[in-house]
Amino acid sequence: xxxxxxxxxxxxxxxxxxxxxxxxxxxxxxxxxxxxxxxxxxxxxxxxxxxxxxxxxxxxxxxxxxxxxxxxxxxxxxxxxxxxxxxxxxxxxxxxxxxxxxxxxxxxxxxxxxxxxxxxxxxxxxxxxxxxxxxxxxxxxxxxxxxxxxxxxxxxxxxxxxxxxxxxxxxxxxxxxxxxxxxxxxxxxxxxxxxxxxxxxxxxxxxxxxxxxxxxxxxxxxxxxxxxxxxxxxxx
Length: 236
Description:
By secondary structure, this protein is of the alpha+beta class. The protein has one domain: Galactose-binding domain-like (Jelly Rolls, Sandwich), CATH 2.60.120.260. It is 13% helix and 32% strand. The protein has helices spanning 2-12, 217-235, and strands at 16-19, 22-29, 57-60, 87-89, 107-112, 119-126, 136-144, 150-157, 169-174, 189-197, 203-205, 207-213. It has a 5-stranded antiparallel beta sheet with strand order 1-2-9-6-12, with no helix packed on it. Strands 3-5-10-7-8 form a 5-stranded antiparallel beta sheet, with no helix packed on it. Strand 1 (16-19) and strand 2 form a beta hairpin.
């Protein structure tokens, strides 16, 4: 399985590259470099041009559809190709933004798993086919449980430089690699949000894969036992 291949690469420490102080892992280029079987489509049977057979619902700031017209949801279709296999082209602009401030200009796309919550441990982003100037150079991966309040899981802020150096390049980020802190919060919504691009008026993205696990039931059980113990002490 591709996910097993990724685990082997991760354990071996091979194919690492440093991108603006982030120890990212370049998996290769093209559809075959995608890990596959992510949370949005574990069976890899989602339709390329329609919202069919996916394990999540989707939303976006612009172009909320699959297929023709380079819709935003194409980043979940397990395909890297021009036209129907990418998201393009509304953009947030090229000017560097202060990501610690408010009222940020952005474009975003997200997957919503409804009543299921996952702890994110790995994600991939793939470049699209068009000019590199449309690649994001300021972006975040965010998590939410209500679609209103979002927490930052990962932030990339390097105005003028993207994470990719080739077209259709798949780059993986993982808490196991130290790219972001090991998560202790489970989320039902995961969002990719871009705030500026390298040097173009438009924005593009080829693919966004999301990997994680449901929190361990033992943790929930231990929490319950702890609450019962606290309640017993209070009664005493």
